Amino acid sequence: MQTYVEQAARAGLLVVQPRMGMPDPGTMAEGIAAVAGARARTLATITVDSYTRVEDLTGAAAALAAGRALNGFPLVNHGPQVTARVAAAAGRIPVQVRHGSARPAHIFEAMTEAGLAASEGGPVSYCLPYSRLPLAESVPAWADATRQFAEHSAQRGLRAHLETFGGCMLGQLCPPSLLVAISVLEAMFFAQHGITSLSLSYAQQTSPVQDIEALAALHHLADLFLPADVARHVVLYTYMGVYPATEAGAELLLDSSARIAVRGGAHRMIVKTVAEAHRIPTVAENVSALERAARAARHAVHDDTLPWAREADYETVCAEATRLITAVLDHGPDLGAGLRAAFAAGTLDVPFCLHRDNAGAARGAISDDGRLVWAATGNMPLPAADTARHAVTSSRLLGMLRHTADTHDLSAAALTRARAAAPHRIAVVGSGPRGLAVVERLAVRLRESAPKRPVEIVLVDKDEVGAGRVWRTDQNPVFLMNTACGEVTMFSGPADDGPARAGAGPSLGQWWAANDDCCPGPNAYAPRVLYGEYLGFFLQSVQDSLPDHATLRRHTGHVTALRAAGDTWRLSCSDGTLIDADRVILATGHPHPELPADQARFADFAHTRPALRHLRGDSAADMPLETIAPGTRTAVLGMGLTFYDVVAALTTGRGGHFAEGPDKALTYHPSGLEPVLIAGSRSGVPLPARGTNQKGPLWRYRARLFTPERVTALRARGPLDFRADLWPWLHAEMLLVHHATALRARHGDTAEQDYLRAATALVAAEGAEQAPHLLAGEARRHGGHDLPPLDIDALVRPFAGRSFPSPAAFTAALTRLIDDDLGHAGQGNLHGPRKAALDVLRDVRGTIRLAVDFGGLTRRSHHEDFLGWFAPLSSFLAAGPPAVRLRQTRALLAAGVLHVAGPAAEYGTDEATGRFTVGSPQVDGSLTHCDALIDARVPAPDLERDTAPLTRQLRAAGLWTPWPGGGVATTTSPFCPLTAQGTPAQGLYVLGIPSEGQRWFMQVGSARPGPWTGFTADADAIAADALTARPLPAARRVLEGTRG
To answer: Residue 144 and residue 864: Cα distance in Å, rounded?
Structure first.
């Protein structure tokens, strides 16, 4: 620990550390990992619970067994192995155990067995404030425990480190000289009992300059009284007394403590959060405080309002502390005996401390200039106090206890009022790719043109600010994206010679290659967790590039309500935080709706049968897949993208692995921890693979038949019928590419181009209804006499009308189908006819949106033809996984780990056996009884069933209204929600998945390098409006049947 702090000090960095302890090992590990991942030089903490603190291990065990909440981590009860695993979450940063025990031997023993060697406390500081134990017991107990801690740590190759708590006695109203003296005396006590690495604490008090003087005195006296071979540093605690009640006041106090730490020469700081006055802070609040303290520490280097320790006049504090230390040393060389004697004689006396071994004659007070002074010194060897001037009455005591909190709350309020102009605040709720894209475009526009008022962007996310829920960075690395990394970017412009910034930065593939020598290249498919890390890099780059008149504040919180507050909006978070904003962008991502009836019956069936498991549809990262026991027969509903993630988590995620043979075929080697998976879907086929990517990042397809111009002309006629008006042209575009690609493969580029010109003109003249016949005939005329067909229906339902005598027969047929698909995927998405044609569905998504969004179709056609037929068809044919997932699926089928029930799979329950069932009516003998059912489908947005408190509140308030059968109804760009009155909610915007339904394919999670796609254009439109705050004209819905 000492080495870590010293290295940070040499780098000019203050080490920041939370006070944090949770009883559950998993939650504790997550908290430690979050601290380790903070954007600061951090040190992790494990704080033990109150039972362990007082050696009531039976009480701790009973609380754990009963599931009662504990106020810390029961380190002894959990044992060394669990504790070591928890501490391992810190990675390379040290972990300190904090405890508050007057007899710490049991804690030190458990720590060292777990490989931990850093703790804190002291024979006085963990007795007088926290314990009824007499010093006659506490001091010897600490002497023995300290000696054993040093010896046991050394035996395990560790160097024990102890931090004194003496500089924090009672938290407040103790003049600095006594704090410094007790901190030094406890450090000497530790050194006397074998500790060679220690830290000396001091708690922030009421005057920043006086605190810097105290830190200077602490450094001086440590050098004077401690052996030269004892490594040491000073740690400052953020104020330990009554904390400011306002967020701004708390932030001001935290900033002040960071400035004091840096200017006073402390190398480590114990941080407090904005929640301290109200409740136990969350992990996210702790991380936010750590990052804020680190920022304030960086700025403190250039702060000329506070002196450096070397400039401070610390003579008074140092002289008083020296007298107190000497008074203890006068009792002899045994520090423990000297401490007991000094308290017995009253030569050490802690103000307002009620412990029976404390004389209680000393009093501290706050002088007119904010410094702590002695109002009474009792029998301590200090100059006589001005008792008349600093008399402490009950009312004055109450005022002094609130002094720091009130001072900072009032100062923060005055600072707010003193600003020349209140900032224009823009809140972005949801920090997945959609929300982050808006933040980036805001930053670009702020860099290009300075606004009249300062701008503050508040980015809010309930899961992980900078990644959101789906892309968060703590998920299983086996989950993959389904887009090649070279085709993914978040920056609205390409990288250049400058640093990554808003408007210019690398694609995911470029960033991956720059940070990992093992990056497979731009056509590789990155793990989802890696994309989450890229999103974090993107956000930090954007934040770092903000101009001086703009700031970005990150807030981890769950927004539960949004209400108009005059001309602004007020967001309410579940933790009580209120955020006022002029403009609010809602990009809240995937919903968590109530289960529909067909799924609720499965959940209800499992609820009454504890042996069963039912996992509702969600992102695989949010499913409790660990509850599926090895060997469990598990039905999997759906074989789309989530299916592949679920299968990966339950196979390679559990230790199994694939091996490639000489023929490039994969063989799966189970770990023995896998369940037996029985999957099914309507098609009976896992989502087909995407073709090997042969298109560069800047490649763009230019349609010839299904063009924006043709679609715009069609829409001018009024609401369209998708199957009659649009599908023929889209299908013709796919056939055109299919035939042209095949001709190029056979006869070269010239034949392809000749065919494209002739076939395009022919279909344009004759109409799309005859396109299949016309295009095939023209292909034959150009040398394609036996081209393979592109039968869309057969691709979507390859087993339609077929039956199989056994599951083995169906598996053989499915394996052949997978091999066929892999063969086509290997030909590529540019040179392979089938995959090139299917890629058209991806390439013309923008044109499809132009055709259908905002009421482009009749109501019937929108729901039956488009959402009911085309949308799943498009997802099946064009949104598949990388080919490796199909190769793995084939190997899992061969290994017997995975089975596919068959086409038209039916899922049910069997009351007689109390189990789930899955089977296919087209496969004899396929009916299987299962003890678990996983719904591997991500729920679609549905405002009527959405359980999110924010969604329900917005619906009740009439701020959100549903697009029939889908998401939120909005205006066209800039996408303001339509209220119950049919008018736009001005200053409010909805982007991404919440608007799916009225708009199509809003789940896209990135832009592409090169010219802007709708992803970036939508974000920019909202950014422009949010900054200019133009009023929107009233607008009504344009969905057919709602016009009045």
So the answer is: 79
Residue 1021 token pair: 């439109």
Buried b (16+ CB within 10 A) or exposed e, 504-542: bbbbbbbbbbeeeeebeebbbbbbbbbbbbbbbbbbebb
Residue that the structure tokens 């132009």 belong to: 850
Nearest to 1017 by CA among 1026, 1027, 1031, 1007: 1007
Which element (helix H / strand E) includes 16? strand 15-17
pLDDT tens string 233-264: 999 999 888 888 888 888 889 999 999 999 99
Please check the confidence at residue 1032 and state whether its pLDDT lies above 70. Answer: no
Characterize the bridge pairing of strands 583-586 and 424-429: parallel
pTM score of the predicted model: 0.63
Kindly state the helix (H) or strand (E) to which residue 338 belongs, with its residue range. Answer: helix 335-345
Rounded to whole angstroms, the Cα distance separating 945 from 836 reads: 38
Assigned token pair, 118 = 């850093």
**Average of pLDDT values for 148-163?**
96
- Each residue's pLDDT tens digit, 599-654: 999 999 999 999 999 999 999 999 999 999 999 999 999 999 999 999 999 999 99
End-to-end CA distance of the chain: 72
Render the burial of 584-620: b for 16+ CB within 10 Å, e for the rest: bbbbbbbbebebeeebeebeebbeeeeebbbbbbbbb
**Sheet strands (E) in 624-706:** 633-637, 657-660, 666-669, 676-680
155 to 2, 112, 664, 929: CA distances (angstroms): 19, 10, 51, 56
Structure tokens at 909: 């329950």
Question: Distance between CA atoms of 848 and 858, rounded to whole angstroms?
Answer: 15
DSSP 8-state class, residue 350: -
By C-alpha distance, which of 932, 899, 926 is closest to 914? 932
Is the alpha carbon torsion for 929, 934, 939, 944 positive or negative? positive
- 303 — pLDDT class (breaks 50, 70, 90): low
pLDDT value, residue 179: 95
CB 929 within 8 Å of CB 916: yes
Q: Helix H segments across 156-270?
A: 176-192, 208-225, 247-264
- Which H helix or E strand runs over 693? none
Q: For residues 373 and 365, is the Cβ–Cβ distance under 8 A?
A: yes
pLDDT-based confidence at residue 172 (cuts at 50, 70, 90): confident
DSSP per-residue codes, 666-731: EEEE--S-PPEEEEE-SSSSPPPPPPPP-S-TT-----SSS-HHHHHHHHTTSSBPIIIIIHHHHH
User: Longest C-alpha distance within the chain, in Å?
Assistant: 112
Task: For residue 254, give the 3-state DSSP assignment.
Answer: helix
Cβ contacts of residue 789 below 8 Å, gap of 6+? none
List domains and CATH numbers for the chain.
Answer: 1-311 (3.20.20.240), 424-592+944-1027 (3.50.50.60), 604-687+882-938 (3.50.50.60), 708-880 (no CATH)
Q: What angle, rounded to 10 degrees, do the helices at 727-747 and 749-766 form?
A: 160
Higher pLDDT, 135 or 246: 135
- In total, the chain counts a number of residues equal to 1044
613-615 and 161-164 strand pairing: unpaired
* Whole-Å CA distances, 778 to 751, 783, 1031: 11, 9, 54
